[in-house]
């Protein structure tokens, strides 16, 4: 079984896997439009985490990392990820395109916070999102740590993500760092 990470699963890999492949899925945009009251915020003061929303451009890539889970680990890893991604995320099959173009695309699973889930907050001004992320904290740590780790990972992969990097820049201005 293959799982695709586009948020914290790109840098906080707390499950066993056999193989890791960098690549992308098409037709989505990565956005901080999902509230987090269980990891990067708390009830009454939610943080923001990324989800994917349908793009107007069916070729638009969202880069991330695919993980191949060994058969003997699938049940345990899926139970762990179902709990980790519990607030509004559902498993969705998509086609993954490896960075190495000599490898054929294949279907895998993503955890998608759909627009109908109760934690989907929808489009917001990036400045407003940055204000939330700058100060939110939850059981898994500060929301800014999530943002900075994700931005650093995407830079390491050589990915351009204006939404992510604009919010990162704005949070750094807010916090004067």
Q: Which helices and strands occur, and which strands form pairs?
A:
Layout: E1 2-5, E2 19-26, E3 28-36, E4 47-54, E5 61-68, H1 74-84, E6 89-98, E7 106-113, H2 126-135, E8 137-138, E9 141-142, H3 143-157, H4 162-175
Parallel strand pairs: 1-7
Antiparallel strand pairs: 1-5, 2-5, 2-6, 3-4, 6-7, 8-9
Helix pairs in contact: 2-4, 3-4
Describe the 3D structure.
The model has no long low-confidence stretch (mean pLDDT 95). The protein has a single domain, classed as Hypothetical upf0131 protein ytfp (Roll), CATH 3.10.490. It has helices spanning 74-84, 126-135, 143-157, 162-175; strands at residues 2-5, 19-26, 28-36, 47-54, 61-68, 89-98, 106-113, 137-138, 141-142. A hairpin with a 2-residue loop joins β8 and β9 (141-142). It is of the alpha+beta class. The chain is globular. The chain is built from 4 helices and 9 strands; from the N terminus they run βββββαββαββαα. 28% of the residues lie in helices and 33% in strands. A 5-stranded mixed barrel has the order 1-5-2-6-7. Strands 3-4 form a two-stranded antiparallel sheet.
